[in-house]
Structure formats: C-alpha cells, structure tokens
Design a protein that fits this description.
The structure holds 2 protein chains of 2 kinds. Chain A is α/β, with parallel strands linked by helices. Helices cover 33% and strands 22% of the residues of chain A. Chain A has an 8-stranded mixed beta sheet with strand order 6-7-8-3-9-10-12-11, with helices on both faces. The N terminus of chain A is likely disordered. Chain B is of the alpha/beta class. Chain B starts with 8 loop residues before the first strand and ends in a 13-residue tail after the last helix. The longest helix of chain B has 18 residues. Classes of the chains: A alpha/beta, B alpha/beta.
C-alpha cells in the first residue's frame, strides 16, 4: 500500500488534481446554502481516489464545481488545479479544451447523459472530431475500436443503434468508452454503478479496473456505496456535511477507521459476510441541512463519542499518522 | 422446498404479458401469515410486475392469486375493494409515491376516509398520530408537506400510509434502494418491528441481498420472469443451487469481505 499522496505530493510528482479550500454556496430565497463547506484534496498521478458520502454531503457538488458544471446561481470559492492549471474562473473556451479530452466525466445515469436521438457511433466519434480535430472517418474507426475495448458485444451493430436500444449496463459501457475517446489523464466517475444491478455493477467495476491497468489513468470514483469504492480505490476520502472527515488508504480505512462516522458507515454497509443480526445496524438521526449554521462538529448530534467540546468547537482535518487524516476530537484508536 | 402449512397468499401459474411477451411467466409460490418472503432478481426480471399483478395494478393473463382462499384475479367491485385493505404496497421512490399537494396528515387519513367513513374527525386524528409515532415520526409533522422531509422520512410516511388499515400482507418494492446506507438500516428495522408487533406478512423485494437475508424467512430468486430458486434464507445464502443465484451472490461488492475475520461477529454498540 502506497503512502497517502496528500503528504507525499510535495516530494513526488505534483498531483494531477489539487482541490484547495473549495467552497460552493447557493443563494436561495435570501438564505445561504453551503453545499460544500470546505474541501481540500489531492489526486496523485495514476491513483484511483474514492470519495464516499451520503446524499447532501457535497461530494458531487465538489467535482462539478471543479469542472465548472454548476448552475449559474452557485458561487464557487477556492481553487481546483488540474496539472497545475487553475480551472476555476477559466474562460469557457479554455475550459472546454481540457474537459472531455484530458479530463472527462462519467455520470450516474447513462440514459440521460447520452443524447437520445443520435446513434451511439456518432456520439462516440464526435468526441474525437470535436476535441481532437479528427476526421469523421478516422473517428468512426476509433469509435468501433473503443466499443470493443469496453467490451460491448457486436460493436459494429451497436454503433448504428440509439441509446434506448441498449441495456443500462451497455449504456454505461458506452459512457465509459466516450470518456476514454481522447485518452484522458483523469476520469471522474460520479456514482457510475448506482443505477445498475449487482451483477452488472460488478462488470462495470471490473471494466474500470481493466481500463486503468491498460492506460494508467487517474480515476476519481464517487459513490455512496463503500463496497463499490473499496473494490477499486487505493485511497478513500469520506465526506460529511460538506467537509472531508477522514482520508486514508482503503485497507487502513476499512480495517481501522479513525472517524466515528466512517466506522458507523462500515457497520451499516449491508454485508453477507457477517452473521445475521437481530437489528440491522443503522445510524440514528439525519445529517444536518446545508442551510444550518455550522456550530461545532457536524456529526456531533449522531456521534456515539460526542463530548461538550464537539458541540462548540469544530475539529479541523489533521494528520493523525503517516497515512491518514481525520477531523475528530476523539478519533478511534487504530 | 418448504411448504407453509396454511397460506395467506397462494399464487399459482401467474402470467403477466406485455404486448404478447411474458414479463411474469408461470410463477407459483405461497406466503404464510406473518411470514416475510424475500424476492430478489435484476431489473427486468419481473419482480415489480409480479408485485403489481398481485395487487391488480397490472392485469394478469393467466393464473390464480388466492388470498385467504379468494381468487383476487376474479374479484370485482365491493369484494375487490374489501381485499385492497388487506394488501398494501410500499414503493421504491418515497417522494414520488406521495401526493405533493397533500399534508402528511391528509395522506394518512385518506385510507380511513375511504374504508371507515363513519369514524369522526377526532378519532381519525388520533389514529394518524398513533401511526406516525409507530413509524418513528412526531405526531406534529401531520401538518407538513412531503417536500419538507428527507428520503428516509418520506419512506416512513409511505409505510405509515400502507399500514393505516393494518393490512395482512405488505408488498415492499425496493423500499430502501433509493436511501443512503446509513438510513437503510432504520427503515429495515422499522419493517421488522411492524412485522413482529402486528404480525404483518411481507413480500420484500430488493436487489440488496444482505437486506433480504436480514428480513426474510424464505427467499425467491427471479430470472427472466420465472422463479428459478426458492429456499429458506439461510440455506439459499449458504448453498445457492441455481447458477444465477450464485452469480448474484458473487457480484456483491462488500467491504466486510475484506475485513471481517470469518465467524467473528462485530459488536454494534451504537444501535438504539
């Protein structure tokens, strides 16, 4: 297991993506909504970083902000550097030279992210034509190669089909293929398997693993499913209420979570490998609303280790050992 | 196969067609009173269509669905309405299955207005408050609208609505799939409390095998419209027979697999 790139980043190659003090806020009906309170993280070259959190934890908002994909009423502060180049505030033309080519995205729902009235082959090919200035005939050959690479059976026929003619799993393969057309250095996959069945999910995760082994690209894998993330990522960042609460290499995080929230998340993940219990493990209560003012630790109301200090003083994210960072006044022993 | 002695629900040779093609094909099974029967399978395998056909939300082409001896597929008018009280359903998307223009109190009072029109306003209000408490919500939320609640809370409301008439059979169609991991357990525990306290039988549909194992006494596996395996929960998970069941079991990404020493139970000290 390699050391966490957050420490090593300065000594080694610079990170491919560095998010620094990123904040996302919305003004809604006079109130301010903090979708992302503050997040800093690095993605090392060749690394697969998992980001885990519940809905509303800010994990998607954070990457959408970095890519300039948020709604116009969102206010983004901080910095997001891709290969050292600041993405925030970049003019659209310059941003579009990076998005879709060097940095691409795979979304949760492959049906709504594909264009319904265009054939699969056209959609794949136009990525190359648009971003790499390829000719249509070259791009169409590349599209066929790509469908074979992402293991879509009967690829030649599939090129002429429309998205609705493909199953959910096939569509997600096409989406992954599309994200790889320009040989990106970083792919951000936001809940890529959440809409899929268990057996198909396993196939898509296997495909991502294979693609990574072939090309050495970096991946950010965002999911609420710790199991799915753990099967691919070397390092996991856990988010809660718009902040990072823990970051550690996958095996360390699973074996010895330091933040009480991470520990509870692991217990709550339904598992066939544990004995059947009387009660299903669950977290009581709800995460705080992004509308609420932040006082103390956001997890305090649900935390089994809470003390008075947690309710008034927010624990900063700090390095706890060589590999892990945690934001907790009373972290669990390793 | 385990044969329950006395069936609450007995399904024989059920077939549902869409444009001449069978979505549910020759399906037979029973549910005993107070039993939880799990149903697993992939999207498109016919799980939800089966659930809807039992409640006559989609028409069946062939077969019988006997509920306490009466064939629901041949019931009409008053008799059908009477049975609708005894079979209720909880849907996957908790927010979409609630009427956005009705307060929670109105939503829960509606079954009472339909099935027990003679009871007074005060009793209705009491019954709504009792049910809200039973599903873990404060009675004061009766005046609020669905959009004011989180997904987990909306699912509690959906369960409360289904339970208002104390049905004998509750069909749960992926009731926790759209909820966050940490909330799923809350809803599963609520369903198991209802089953224990009220003796409600359930057909529990999910693609999450761990959740199905937790709640069910027996589990059916559906594939391409047919039941391919039906067994006691512990037998099915310990020794799956059908290749599809095995594939399904092997596919689950499971963080515990990597960390849990076999046979050593974890202690869940935080619960309740």
């Amino acid at each position: 297991m390699s050391a966490a790139p957050t420490v090593a980043a300065t000594e080694r190659a610079p990170p491919i993506l560095r998010v620094d003090a990123l904040k996302v806020r919305y003004a809604l009906d006079g109130a301010e909504i903090a979708a992302v309170r503050e997040v800093s993280l690095d993605v090392a070259v060749g690394e697969c970083l998992g980001i885990v959190g519940e809905s509303g934890s800010g994990k998607s908002q954070m990457v959408l902000a970095a890519l300039g994909l948020l709604a116009s009423n969102a206010r983004t502060l901080g910095s997001a550097r891709f290969e050292g180049k600041e993405l925030l505030g970049l003019p659209l033309a310059a941003l579009n030279r990076i998005r879709g080519s060097k940095l691409s995205m795979v979304f949760q729902d492959p049906m709504t992210s594909l264009t319904p009235h265009l054939r699969i082959g056209v959609q794949l090919a136009e990525v190359l034509v648009h971003h790499a200035g390829a000719t249509w005939s070259h791009a169409q050959r590349a599209a066929l190669d790509m469908l074979e690479r992402v293991r879509v059976p009967d690829a030649r026929r599939r090129l002429r089909q429309y998205p609705h003619e493909l199953s959910g799993g096939m569509r997600q393969r096409v989406m992954i293929g599309m994200s790889l057309m320009c040989e990106p250095k970083l792919v951000i996959a936001d809940e890529p398997t959440s809409a899929l069945d268990a057996t198909v999910q396993a196939q898509i995760l296997a495909l991502l693993r294979e693609v990574r082994a072939q090309s050495g690209l970096s991946i950010v894998l965002i999911s609420h499913d710790l199991g799915a993330v753990a099967s691919l990522a070397e390092r996991i960042v856990v988010m809660y209420a718009g902040r990072v609460v823990e970051s550690a290499p996958t095996m360390e995080l699973l074996r010895a979570p330091r933040h009480p929230y991470t520990s509870l998340l692991i217990e709550c993940a339904p598992s066939l490998h544990r004995p059947r219990l009387d009660r299903m493990p669950s977290l009581l209560g709800l995460p705080p609303s992004p509308r609420d003012a932040e006082i103390g630790c956001a997890f305090a109301p649900r935390c089994p280790r809470v003390t008075d200090r947690c309710r008034v003083q927010r624990p900063p994210l700090r390095r706890i050992d060589e590999v892990a960072e945690v934001a907790c006044h009373h972290p669990l022993a390793p | 196969m385990i044969e329950p002695r006395e069936s609450l629900l007995e399904v024989r040779g059920l077939r549902v067609e869409f444009e001449g093609r069978a979505a549910v094909d020759d399906v037979s099974f029973e549910i005993a009173p107070a039993e939880v029967l799990g149903l697993v399978g992939e999207s498109g395998s016919g799980k939800s269509t089966l659930a809807r056909a039992l409640l006559r939300l989609v028409p069946a082409a062939q077969g019988t669905v006997r509920f306490r001896g009466t064939d629901l597929l041949r019931c009409t008018g008053r008799a059908l309405r009477r049975h609708r009280r005894d079979l209720q359903i909880v849907f996957q998307d908790p927010l979409a299955s609630l009427d956005p223009r009705m307060t929670v109190g109105e939503t829960l009072a509606e079954p009472l207005e339909i099935f027990e029109p003679t009871i007074g306003t005060r009793e209705r209000r009491t019954r709504v408050a009792e049910m809200l408490e039973r599903v873990g919500l404060a009675p004061q939320v009766a005046g609020r609208y669905p959009h004011e609640f989180s997904g987990g809370q909306c699912q509690r409301i959906g369960i409360a609505r289904a339970m208002m008439q104390r049905p004998e059979l509750l069909v749960c169609d992926e009731p926790v799939s759209s909820l966050d991991m940490s909330i799923q357990g809350q809803i599963v525990n609520l369903l198991s409390d209802l089953q224990r306290d009220l003796g409600t039988a359930m057909l529990f549909i999910s693609h999450n095998l761990a959740v199905v194992r937790h709640l069910s006494q027996r589990v059916m596996v559906m594939y391409a419209g047919r039941i391919v395996e039906i067994a006691g929960a512990s037998e099915l998970f310990a020794a799956p027979v059908h290749p599809y069941t095995r594939a399904l079991l092997a596919a689950v990404p499971d963080p515990a697999a990597a960390l849990c020493p076999p046979g050593e139970p974890l202690v869940y000290s935080y619960e309740r």
